[in-house]
């Protein structure tokens, strides 16, 4: 078994995807701004889209779509329990680009005690994002 994708539920899928494409250069695999599915409730948004990212995909759906597909799905207004982490060799540049596009800085780039450079931000839809270098592996015995 392998992880297929991570789905983030947001109120405006095209807007969320625009942030990730502009901030990080990810490619849109597909976007359906008006998903046609039986059982829709008039006046609610049913949107779904997928971004291609190095190593996988990130998908976005509206809470109404989640509730339609999964009975009992909680329609949270803001995602606060998910963190996406992306590795890069240039943490400061990627972090600054994301902030310019509308991300909220939570922790500016800094070298951690274990040697990894890490920065944290929150995307406009509320997802926590870590921008970091690959972990420093120290196999030396103490």
From TrEMBL:
Residues 2-134 form the VOC domain. PROSITE patterns: VOC. It comes from the Bacteria. Coiled coil: none annotated. This is VOC family protein. The lineage of its organism: Bacteria, Bacillati, Cyanobacteriota, Cyanophyceae, Synechococcales.
């Amino acid at each position: 078994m392998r992880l297929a994708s991570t789905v983030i539920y947001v109120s405006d899928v095209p807007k969320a995807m625009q942030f990730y494409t502009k901030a990080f250069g990810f490619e849109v695999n597909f976007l359906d701004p008006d998903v046609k599915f039986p059982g829709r409730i008039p006046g609610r948004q049913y949107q779904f889209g997928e971004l291609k990212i190095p190593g996988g995909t990130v998908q976005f759906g509206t809470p109404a779509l989640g509730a339609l597909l999964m009975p009992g799905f909680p329609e949270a207004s803001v995602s606060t329990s998910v963190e996406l982490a992306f590795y890069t060799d240039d943490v400061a540049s990627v972090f600054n680009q994301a902030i310019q596009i509308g991300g909220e800085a939570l922790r500016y780039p800094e070298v951690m005690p274990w040697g990894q450079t890490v920065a944290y931000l929150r995307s406009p839809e509320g997802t926590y994002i870590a921008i970091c270098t690959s972990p420093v592996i120290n196999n030396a015995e103490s």
